[in-house]
Request: fold
Amino acid sequence: MPLIDTADLEIREPKKGWRGRFFHSRKMTLAYYDVAVNSTLHEHSHSNEEVWNVIKGQLKITIDGKSKLVGPGGAAIIPPNTPHAVRVMKKARILVVDAPRRSSIGGVEI
Reply:
């Protein structure tokens, strides 16, 4: 089983304020983000299931029109093809997992 130290991965910024380190397993894409307060992701959807795990900070996550604040230890599960949006309420550290694997995020190849 490969071991990955995310500190060794290149930092990419697919959207202003969203600084991430990305890698893949056989079936998933993982993104470790450090995100500035007030950063947002517009409402969008995609064919991947997505799980947002908040490690630090606070997010307002809207899934299919319903919003909730999510803080450390919280997670949001976004089904495939479901509209969702995010606003960072407090500077955050987040782990986002997509299945199946993605080849790009925000137009940036990963």
